[in-house]
């Protein structure tokens, strides 16, 4: 038996959890229900829900016979409501496809609604003595730390590596105790932040503890690179200190707000000023760019300052405004455009 398994099994006898309501049973309905409820939810929260659920739906047949709407109140407050819908769909599938008896083969269990490979294996190990490993969030954390597995465990390559490791470590007997020990260790000792290494049976063989890397392992989900865009805006100011503003289309960013005229890709400032507003500007000054972070992208705003004598009548068309650049307090401007205009105003004579 691997040293990992030997240590865990011995630890579980002395320090594991033995009296949870879903332990000491091999009824797949009860084990399955607890496994689903425990996904993303703490034991203490699950306990009263588990009890109430079983009072109302004592058997898988009772659950399958009830309409799904009758199930939801017993889940209200647990969150992740797809779990409850899948639970109900799964009960019906077991009734219809398996004559009301939970299948024993983990691969067949994993085909039922809402049951992944790890949950299927846990049910098969606890209820039918199958020799299969589990790999839930707690186990991934313990494996990553104990064996120094690098990479975010949510990526297929790292997950595959961990399944391989989990298979290798699996003991020949007492698989149910071993699995329970892994779950308990992850929930009570090798917790996400501040693991209790001094109370851990794996401390002497743990890579993360040896290298003081508990906080780094498992590797966090990589942050998505936020796309960077750049846009050029015309700051056209007349002698009287008024700036040309344009109302944005109703849809898209800053929909319906006032903004500076924006140049399209490849469009020139001269061309835009002349064709859109009838303005001939002979000199453009590029002002320092300003950066603004949206939820899904970062925008670099590049202001191009152009000066004119006065605005022609054409710039009074609907949607166009010329407002005093030093008095834009009440104008409906997007925050970065307001910042950009403040900066531009400070540069005017
Ligand atoms: S020694 Fe610490 S980091 Fe390593 S498995 Fe135990 S609790 Fe987790």
Task: Record keyword descriptors for this entry.
349 residues, alpha+beta, Endonuclease III, domain 1, Nucleoside Triphosphate Pyrophosphohydrolase, 2 domains, four-stranded mixed sheet, three-stranded antiparallel sheet, 12% strand, elongated, binds iron/sulfur cluster
Explain what this protein looks like in three dimensions.
The protein has 349 residues and is an alpha+beta fold. The protein has two domains: 3-210, Hypothetical protein, domain 2 (Endonuclease III, domain 1, Orthogonal Bundle), CATH 1.10.340; 228-347, Nucleoside Triphosphate Pyrophosphohydrolase. The protein has 14 helices and seven strands. Strands 1, 4, 5 and 6 form a four-stranded mixed beta sheet that branches. The N and C termini lie far apart (82 Å). The mean pLDDT is 94. Iron/sulfur cluster (SF4) is lined by residues 142, 145-146, 189-190, 195-197, 200, 202-203, 206, 208-209, 214.
In short:
It contains 14 helices and seven strands.
Count all strands and give the number. Answer: 7
Instruction: Count the DSSP helices.
Output: 14
CATH H-level name of the largest domain... which superfamily? Hypothetical protein, domain 2
Measured as a percent range, the helix fraction is: 40-55%
The unique ligands bound to this protein are: iron/sulfur cluster
Mean pLDDT: 94
Structural class of the helices, strands and pairings? Answer: alpha+beta
Give the tally of structural domains: 2
- What best-fitting shape do the alpha-carbon axes yield? elongated
Look up the CATH topology of the largest domain.
Endonuclease III, domain 1
Strand content: 5-15%
Element-level helix/strand string: HHHHHHHHHHHHEEEHEEEEH
The major beta sheet can be summarized as: 4 strands, mixed
CATH architecture of the largest domain: Orthogonal Bundle
| Straight-line N-to-C gap | 82 Å
Radius of gyration: 32 Å
Low-confidence stretches: none
For this structure, what is the CATH class of the largest domain?
Answer: Mainly Alpha
């Amino acid at each position: 038996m691997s040293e990992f398994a030997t240590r865990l099994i011995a630890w579980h006898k002395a320090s594991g959890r033995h009296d949870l309501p879903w332990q000491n049973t091999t009824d797949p309905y009860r084990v399955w229900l607890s496994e689903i409820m425990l996904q993303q939810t703490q034991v203490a929260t699950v306990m009263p829900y588990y009890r109430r659920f079983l009072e109302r739906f004592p058997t898988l047949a009772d659950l399958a016979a009830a309409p799904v709407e009758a199930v939801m109140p017993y889940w209200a407050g647990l969150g992740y409501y797809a779990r409850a819908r899948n639970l109900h769909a799964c009960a019906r599938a077991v009734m219809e496809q398996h004559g009301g008896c939970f299948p024993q083969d983990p691969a067949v269990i994993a085909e039922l609604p809402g049951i992944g490979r790890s949950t299927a294996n846990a049910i098969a190990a606890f209820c039918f003595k199958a020799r299969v490993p589990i790999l839930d969030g707690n186990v991934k954390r313990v494996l990553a730390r104990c064996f120094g597995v690098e990479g975010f465990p949510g990526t297929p390559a790292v997950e595959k590596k961990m399944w391989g490791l989990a298979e290798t470590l699996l003991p020949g007997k007492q698989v149910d105790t071993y699995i329970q020990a892994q779950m308990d260790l992850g929930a009570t000792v090798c917790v996400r932040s501040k693991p209790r290494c001094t109370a851990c049976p794996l401390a002497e063989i743990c890579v993360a503890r040896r290298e003081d890397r508990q906080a780094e392992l498992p590797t966090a989900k990589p942050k998505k690179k936020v796309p960077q865009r750049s846009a050029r805006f015309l700051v056209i100011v007349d002698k009287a200190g008024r700036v040309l503003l344009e109302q944005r289309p109703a849809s898209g960013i800053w929909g319906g707000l006032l903004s500076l005229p924006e140049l399209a890709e490849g469009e020139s400032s001269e061309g835009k000023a002349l064709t859109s507003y009838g303005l001939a500007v002979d000199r453009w000054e590029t002002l320092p760019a300003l950066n603004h972070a949206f939820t899904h992208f970062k925008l670099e705003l590049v202001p191009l300052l152009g000066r004119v004598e006065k605005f022609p009548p054409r710039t009074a068309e609907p949607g166009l405004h010329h407002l005093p650049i030093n008095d834009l307090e009440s104008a409906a401007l997007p925050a970065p455009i307001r910042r950009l205009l403040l900066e531009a105003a400070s540069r005017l004579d």
